Amino acid sequence: MPVRLPSRPLTTEEQAHLATFHKHLLRSRTILAVVGAGLSASSGLPTFRGAGGLWRNYASIDLATPEAFLADPGLVWQFYSSRRYQALKVRPNKGHFALAELGRRMEDNGKKFMMLTQNVDGLDIRAGHDPKTCLELHGSLFTLKCTSFACTYVEKGNREHPLVKALEGKEDEFIVQKGRKRVRDEEQEESMKKVKPDTTNQEEEGRKCDSEATSDLEDTKSKIQDNVDNHSTETVDEGGSSPEYKPVEHIPEDELPHCPRCKSGLLRPGVVWFGESLPLDVIDKADQFLVDNEVDLCLVIGTSGTVWPAMGYVERVKGTGKVAVFNMDEKDIEMTKERGGWGFAGDAAEWLPLALEPLIGSDFLPRNWKRL
């Protein structure tokens, strides 16, 4: 019987490539997986910085900042309430379940496994990953944190929707305009390829002096108003029409989610915003895993192995192990092959069950997987 993906049979070359990967997979005693938005896209979620992606005429990068939250917490909470709703209404795909099963099989056989996910949608945990071996580099939409400086309240795994009555009915979909891309999106993507995030001195760097914070706040308010007044000035029009514009209702702060412990501080989503450091405790756990173990195989899934933070972990693994990339980016795939690794171009949710089959078998889906 020919080897095939759900959507097509494999070519002879692909079968030979997969066979060599299987041999290395079976020999591997320590596996690291780095997961990005491409895997969640297979479940139907829009990628965070997808070209032309808008929510009520706002780009994600304009709302995913501390300054935006200070300027208009109601606006930012409506955006994140929409993202929470979208993540809740989709289910983990077969790729998520294959990785979760890989983690269990590795542990059962006395081997080591760690997954670093750049996704905040919680699909990895819903698929059954052990939270101890699934580190959320960018936080989670379903973690809530108090913004009061004196309060340390954190709540994980809150999947209630809506969180408060004022956020009811804010479940708008992202509008994706084909052929349209914000200039700022292009600049952001280019800078992400070049700049390594600094995770040192997190506590000190995470605080700004009052004058800087005031300046940032006024600048953000101005940008938000500019977006409302002239929403198409930062787009590159390649033939697409202007997206539908839907004004955002103002929500007073006293109607937004508040901390149940201190009673006064606003709650915020427990995600890493632009300008913030990655969580130090998570980075420490990831670094300790690499210090304690020689990684035989690094799986790069739904993200590029040439951008940070994935690139940093891939580079550290290369000294002791091999790299396999599962992604839509053909250039990234070819580059990995040229460096002696494996590259599987296409939908990671289709490739992973087949690629991991020697370890997880073909019957790895839980009976109730369509309801998770």
From TrEMBL:
<keyword id="KW-0808">Transferase</keyword>
<feature type="active site" description="Proton acceptor">
    <location>
        <position position="138"/>
    </location>
</feature>
<feature type="binding site">
    <location>
        <position position="146"/>
    </location>
    <ligand>
        <name>Zn(2+)</name>
    </ligand>
</feature>
<keyword id="KW-0520">NAD</keyword>
<feature type="domain" description="Deacetylase sirtuin-type">
    <location>
        <begin position="11"/>
        <end position="363"/>
    </location>
</feature>
<feature type="binding site">
    <location>
        <position position="262"/>
    </location>
    <ligand>
        <name>Zn(2+)</name>
    </ligand>
</feature>
<keyword id="KW-0862">Zinc</keyword>
<feature type="binding site">
    <location>
        <position position="259"/>
    </location>
    <ligand>
        <name>Zn(2+)</name>
    </ligand>
</feature>
<feature type="compositionally biased region" description="Basic and acidic residues">
    <location>
        <begin position="218"/>
        <end position="234"/>
    </location>
</feature>
<comment type="similarity">
    <text>Belongs to the sirtuin family. Class I subfamily.</text>
</comment>
<protein>
    <submittedName>
        <fullName>CYFA0S05e04720g1_1</fullName>
    </submittedName>
</protein>
<dbReference type="InterPro" id="IPR026590">
    <property type="entry name" value="Ssirtuin_cat_dom"/>
</dbReference>
<dbReference type="InterPro" id="IPR050134">
    <property type="entry name" value="NAD-dep_sirtuin_deacylases"/>
</dbReference>
<dbReference type="Pfam" id="PF02146">
    <property type="entry name" value="SIR2"/>
</dbReference>
<feature type="binding site">
    <location>
        <position position="151"/>
    </location>
    <ligand>
        <name>Zn(2+)</name>
    </ligand>
</feature>
<dbReference type="InterPro" id="IPR003000">
    <property type="entry name" value="Sirtuin"/>
</dbReference>
<dbReference type="InterPro" id="IPR029035">
    <property type="entry name" value="DHS-like_NAD/FAD-binding_dom"/>
</dbReference>
<feature type="region of interest" description="Disordered">
    <location>
        <begin position="179"/>
        <end position="248"/>
    </location>
</feature>
<dbReference type="GO" id="GO:0046872">
    <property type="term" value="F:metal ion binding"/>
</dbReference>
<keyword id="KW-0678">Repressor</keyword>
<dbReference type="GO" id="GO:0005634">
    <property type="term" value="C:nucleus"/>
</dbReference>
<dbReference type="GO" id="GO:0017136">
    <property type="term" value="F:histone deacetylase activity, NAD-dependent"/>
</dbReference>
<dbReference type="GO" id="GO:0070403">
    <property type="term" value="F:NAD+ binding"/>
</dbReference>
<keyword id="KW-0479">Metal-binding</keyword>
